[in-house]
Amino acid sequence: MSKFVEDHTTKESDEKQTEKVLLDPYHYICQIPGKQVRTKLVTAFNYWLNIPKPELDLIGEATQMLHNASLLIDDIEDNSNLRRGVPVAHKIYGVPHTINSANYVYFLGLEKALKLDHPEVTKVFTEQILELHRGQGMDIYWRDTVCCPSEEQYKIMVIRKTGGLFGLAVRSMQLFSANKSDFKPLLDTLGLYFQIRDDYANLYSEEYETNKSYCEDLTEGKFSFPLIHAILSDPEDNQVLSILRQRTTDNNVKKYCVQLLEKKGSFEYTRQILIQLEDK
């Protein structure tokens, strides 16, 4: 009997250790303070949806898990160095371990969502995660082919990528609410505002420089909102596009590009778009 208990205890200990190892990159990113936008969104929407606390907590936890897991993958795909002011997870744990951890958490998030015990939850989960990956895929494609999208194409991408988890949270909540209003227009607006503001801050905000490397979107070669405006508003001048193509780490070149964006009115245009989104 004592041998059985000992073996059982050892097995439990091994499983806990395995789980810890699998989740180390995920726990690493979770310990870094973030904006908690999605958690706050769930709480805010419950003012209208008024769902029971157990379901609310499960949806909030699952959404936050998926968000943090997606950040692990994003940082690899973007070849980032910093996340919220500290080294990204894959610089600590390596790319293979971090990818596996993120994918593992995607399914842990689904497992948690299934505890909601609603026949539609898998459909909502699948549809919104697919949208997230469609948006991310186009963002990567434009970057890697140095193909500047139109402003409309950019907006569709953002609604899919940034709005994917917004939609997952709210649609899941509506499964348990009498309020079946169509919140997609509002969620689309929130997603656009959130991403365009992030794009603006990456190139313009001094605070952002302390959390990520200076003008990181230029090093990544990312077609962010201000850069798209600068490129499309003056097709004869290819300086901004050429700088993006270089994936520069030279801060002097980055500062010159920021001056170009200021000169072309791209920051002012971005600010006006953000004001319009705020007014919606």
UniProtKB/TrEMBL annotation:
<dbReference type="InterPro" id="IPR033749">
    <property type="entry name" value="Polyprenyl_synt_CS"/>
</dbReference>
<keyword id="KW-0479">Metal-binding</keyword>
<comment type="similarity">
    <text>Belongs to the FPP/GGPP synthase family.</text>
</comment>
<dbReference type="GO" id="GO:0008299">
    <property type="term" value="P:isoprenoid biosynthetic process"/>
</dbReference>
<dbReference type="InterPro" id="IPR008949">
    <property type="entry name" value="Isoprenoid_synthase_dom_sf"/>
</dbReference>
<dbReference type="Pfam" id="PF00348">
    <property type="entry name" value="polyprenyl_synt"/>
</dbReference>
<dbReference type="InterPro" id="IPR000092">
    <property type="entry name" value="Polyprenyl_synt"/>
</dbReference>
<protein>
    <recommendedName>
        <fullName>Geranylgeranyl pyrophosphate synthase</fullName>
    </recommendedName>
</protein>
<dbReference type="GO" id="GO:0004659">
    <property type="term" value="F:prenyltransferase activity"/>
</dbReference>
<keyword id="KW-0808">Transferase</keyword>
<dbReference type="GO" id="GO:0046872">
    <property type="term" value="F:metal ion binding"/>
</dbReference>
<keyword id="KW-0460">Magnesium</keyword>
